[in-house]
Specification:
This protein is 18% helix and 34% strand. The protein is α+β, with helices and mostly antiparallel strands and 291 residues long. The chain is globular and about 55 Å long.
Length: 291
């Protein structure tokens, strides 16, 4: 299934994407959770209901008539892996890492498909990074690599938007990866059962229609099961936790000369079987406020 968080004049809720239409899960069952974390936290109970709706209910809502939000909004944890494709490691001039290079993003970075991404006032070095994103579906700790994919709810496209000068002003990447709206994910969550092998998916990034990145997840240095097992050795992973798995070569900072994003640019991330995530860069409003 392709599970979407969507909104129309009836409010925000969950649906199943069928082509260019949606099944409204709240119309099928008014008690159905309206957010992805609650849905995933109920495990098999909500999963069975969603599968029943997918079999029995006609999709009646056009995708074009709704707003698609991030499939998981306000996740508890967002972990990202740097330098996880050999060709990207080479273009950065770094050595192939012996261990995964981890950093985090805050929940305020998360936005969905067609949402604006802010071009911050403090930098002109804004970059794209197309990534396969993993959404955790089950609470787990100390899970073995061979069992780790069982903890996955599904996958989606992601863009690890990076403010390069802020990223490299510190030995750790986090500050340059944490700007508001700089973690688009979507357009929906494709459940694990629909993806036979997450390490065999073509991944592409386009800026204003021009291809900048094109690769395949088979080239991940640290595979998804390794990443989940390593994180679960440290902390409890929970339903709705988000893992960005790394980006291939072709980022703007490595081009000669570097090509950074500017207001008005549209960035698309397309992954086979997962759809296309599209976002436009807009100038940040720097009006100060305290609320």
């Amino acid at each position: 299934m392709k599970l979407a968080t969507f909104e129309d004049d009836k409010g925000k809720r969950l649906g199943i994407v069928k082509g260019d239409m949606l099944i409204d899960l709240s119309a099928f069952d008014p008690t159905f959770p309206t957010d992805m974390i609650t849905y995933l936290s109920h495990g098999d109970t909500t999963g069975r209901k969603a599968k029943q709706a997918n079999r029995e209910v006609e999709a009646t809502i056009p995708l074009s008539s709704v707003t698609l939000h991030a499939p998981v909004e306000d996740p508890r944890k967002i972990f990202c892996v740097g330098l996880n494709y050999a060709d990207h490691v080479a273009e950065t001039g770094r050595d192939k890492p012996e261990n995964a290079t981890w950093f985090t993003k805050p929940p305020t970075a998360i936005v969905g498909h067609d949402a604006n991404v802010l071009k911050p006032a403090v930098s002109d070095m804004i970059d794209y990074e197309a990534e396969l994103v993993v959404i955790i579906g089950h609470r787990c700790r100390h899970i073995a690599p061979e069992d780790a994919l069982n903890a996955v709810a599904g996958y989606c496209c992601g863009n690890d938007v990076s403010v390069r000068d802020w990223q490299f002003r510190s030995p750790q990447f986090t500050i340059g990866k944490s700007f508001d709206t700089h973690g688009p994910i979507g357009p929906w969550l494709t459940t694990r059962d629909e993806i036979a092998d997450p390490h065999a998916l073509t991944i592409e990034c386009r800026v204003n229609g021009a291809v900048r990145q094109k690769s395949n997840t088979e080239h991940l240095i640290f595979k998804i099961e390794h990443l989940i097992a390593e994180l679960s050795a440290v902390m409890t992973l929970e339903p709705g936790d988000v893992i960005f798995t790394g980006t291939p070569s072709g980022v703007g900072v490595a081009m000669k000369p570097p090509q950074f994003l500017k207001a008005g640019d549209t960035v698309e991330v397309e992954i086979a079987g997962l759809g296309t995530l599209s976002n436009q860069m807009v100038t940040e409003d720097v009006t100060p406020y305290v609320k």
